[in-house]
From TrEMBL:
<keyword id="KW-0375">Hydrogen ion transport</keyword>
<comment type="function">
    <text>F(1)F(0) ATP synthase produces ATP from ADP in the presence of a proton or sodium gradient. F-type ATPases consist of two structural domains, F(1) containing the extramembraneous catalytic core and F(0) containing the membrane proton channel, linked together by a central stalk and a peripheral stalk. During catalysis, ATP synthesis in the catalytic domain of F(1) is coupled via a rotary mechanism of the central stalk subunits to proton translocation.</text>
</comment>
<keyword id="KW-0066">ATP synthesis</keyword>
<comment type="similarity">
    <text>Belongs to the ATPase B chain family.</text>
</comment>
<keyword id="KW-0812">Transmembrane</keyword>
<feature type="transmembrane region" description="Helical">
    <location>
        <begin position="15"/>
        <end position="34"/>
    </location>
</feature>
<comment type="function">
    <text>Component of the F(0) channel, it forms part of the peripheral stalk, linking F(1) to F(0).</text>
</comment>
<comment type="subunit">
    <text>F-type ATPases have 2 components, F(1) - the catalytic core - and F(0) - the membrane proton channel. F(1) has five subunits: alpha(3), beta(3), gamma(1), delta(1), epsilon(1). F(0) has three main subunits: a(1), b(2) and c(10-14). The alpha and beta chains form an alternating ring which encloses part of the gamma chain. F(1) is attached to F(0) by a central stalk formed by the gamma and epsilon chains, while a peripheral stalk is formed by the delta and b chains.</text>
</comment>
<dbReference type="InterPro" id="IPR050059">
    <property type="entry name" value="ATP_synthase_B_chain"/>
</dbReference>
<dbReference type="GO" id="GO:0005886">
    <property type="term" value="C:plasma membrane"/>
</dbReference>
<keyword id="KW-0813">Transport</keyword>
<dbReference type="GO" id="GO:0012505">
    <property type="term" value="C:endomembrane system"/>
</dbReference>
<dbReference type="GO" id="GO:0046961">
    <property type="term" value="F:proton-transporting ATPase activity, rotational mechanism"/>
</dbReference>
<dbReference type="GO" id="GO:0046933">
    <property type="term" value="F:proton-transporting ATP synthase activity, rotational mechanism"/>
</dbReference>
<protein>
    <recommendedName>
        <fullName>ATP synthase subunit b</fullName>
    </recommendedName>
</protein>
<keyword id="KW-0472">Membrane</keyword>
<keyword id="KW-0406">Ion transport</keyword>
């Protein structure tokens, strides 16, 4: 070994001093620079891992929320269809009700008009009968050339009316 020391011109004391200096500098750098840097990097690694885990949880919650949202939208659509169907059914029932009520009112108006017409007809027939009776009485007077009393007149009128009918 001495030959190596002589070839490279190494001084053992100086070499040992450099090793001690290197160890001291390495210890200082490790203690003040590397160790805090390692702890900061470990904390960052933990934060990143936590952020990734939180992102995965948030992504799962987001997918669940989207599914719930879609289900609620579908349910709201179904309810809207039901409401529209119910409204259409109620409208149809109301329409039928109004039509039936209108028919009843029209039927009632027609019946009232029929009654008025029948009453008018009866009144007109009564007037016609009284005029016909007067005409018959006058024609009988001329035919018989004598005035017939009330009883004879009435019986003759009734006979004539029966013949007309």
């Amino acid at each position: 070994m001495e030959s190596i020391i002589e070839i490279f011109h190494l001084n053992l004391k100086l070499f040992l001093a450099q090793i001690v200096n290197f160890a001291i500098i390495f210890g200082i750098i490790y203690y003040f620079a590397v160790k805090p840097l390692i702890s900061v990097m470990q904390e960052r690694t933990k934060k990143i891992e936590k952020s990734l885990a939180d992102a995965a949880v948030i992504e799962k919650k987001l997918s669940l929320t989207e599914k719930e949202y879609q289900q609620k939208i579908d349910q709201a659509g179904k309810e809207a269809v039901k409401i529209i169907d119910n409204a259409n059914e109620l409208a149809e029932n109301k329409k039928k009700e109004i039509v039936a009520k209108a028919r009843d009112e029209v039927g009632q108006i027609i019946n009232n008009e029929k009654q008025l017409l029948l009453a008018e007809k009866a009144k007109t027939l009564k007037e016609i009968k009284s005029e016909v009776a007067g005409l018959i009485a006058m024609s009988l007077e001329k035919i018989l050339e004598e005035k017939v009393d009330y009883k004879k007149e009435k019986s003759l009128i009734e006979k004539m009316i029966k013949k007309i009918r």
